[in-house]
């Protein structure tokens, strides 16, 4: 057919709609959106009326609706079907907005915690106040190898994922005072994920507010025993009563440094107060 002023070529239609010709060919192949006319010479022509239909498809695609669902809607479209479709998408968007807001807060807090760790620098044994924190814990079986440690940590991560626990804090660990005094620095009792507020419907361990003996360790896990010994020595020299478990928090981890040996840890234990309890 000759060029009809009521029709647009594929290139003209693509430019008008702000897409590539490949997109139009792809939509045609899927049966989602086809040209009004396919001439015998292979040329494709689109009508002016199809512009509105294409913008409907573009709008639905912006809502992340798969093309197959868009096609199914177009095949049976009606005012009632549009209401149903848009109401369903509105619910999905509400949930997506909630997730994005939660992710934004997570990113903000992670940046804040990392900046705080960088600003503080090295810190030897000292006593300072800690706020109350909530720990989602999983027990750690006896660790016999790096593999067993990795499997136990993966189990903790899986538990948190199942219960939709999202935290800016890296996974921490607990080890009893008696284990440290015996020099058994790998006998961890729990892995934990720290939270600023308690989650709903899930028991947590409360790390009570109070005075803690604490120190920062630069050098990763392999040399952490040196800082544990420094803390015990400092407690003896200062006559500080220690109670409960040591908490090993990771301040800088793989997200900000390369390799375990560059991790920065904060090791702390409460002074002369009752240890947290399960709620």
TrEMBL record:
Transmembrane segments: none annotated. The keyword DNA-binding applies. The keyword Ubl conjugation does not apply. GO terms for molecular function: DNA binding; DNA-binding transcription factor activity. Keywords: Coiled coil, DNA-binding. This is MerR family transcriptional regulator. Residues 83-110 form a coiled coil. It comes from the Bacteria. SUPFAM superfamilies: Probable bacterial effector-binding domain, Putative DNA-binding domain. InterPro entries: DNA-bd_dom_put_sf, MerR-type_HTH_dom, MerR_fam, Reg_factor_effector_dom_sf. Residues 7-76 form the HTH merR-type domain.
């Amino acid at each position: 057919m000759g060029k009809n002023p009521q029709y647009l070529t594929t290139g003209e239609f693509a430019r008008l709609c702000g897409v590539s010709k490949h997109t139009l060919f792809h939509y045609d192949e899927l049966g989602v959106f086809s040209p009004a006319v396919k001439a015998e010479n292979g040329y494709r022509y689109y009508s002016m009326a199809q512009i509105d239909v294409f913008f409907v498809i573009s709008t639905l695609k912006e809502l992340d609706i798969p093309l197959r669902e868009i096609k199914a809607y177009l095949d049976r479209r009606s005012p009632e079907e549009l209401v149903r479709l848009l109401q369903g998408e509105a619910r999905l968007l509400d949930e997506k907005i909630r997730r994005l807001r939660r992710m934004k807060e997570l990113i903000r807090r992670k940046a804040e915690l990392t900046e705080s760790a960088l600003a503080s620098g090295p810190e030897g044994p000292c006593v300072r106040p800690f706020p109350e924190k909530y720990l989602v814990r999983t027990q750690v079986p006896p660790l016999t190898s790096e593999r067993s440690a990795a499997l136990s940590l993966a189990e903790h991560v899986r538990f948190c994922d199942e219960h939709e626990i999202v935290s800016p804090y890296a996974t921490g660990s607990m080890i009893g005072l008696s284990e440290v005094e015996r020099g058994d620095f790998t006998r961890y009792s729990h892995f934990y994920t720290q939270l600023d507020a308690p989650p709903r419907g899930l028991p947590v361990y409360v790390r009570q507010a109070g005075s803690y003996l604490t120190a920062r360790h630069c050098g990763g896990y392999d040399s952490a025993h040196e800082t544990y010994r420094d803390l015990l020595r400092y407690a003896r020299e200062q006559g500080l009563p220690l109670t409960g478990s040591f908490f090993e928090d990771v301040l800088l981890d793989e997200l900000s440094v390369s390799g375990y040996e560059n991790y920065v840890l904060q090791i702390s234990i409460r002074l002369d107060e009752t240890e947290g309890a399960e709620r």
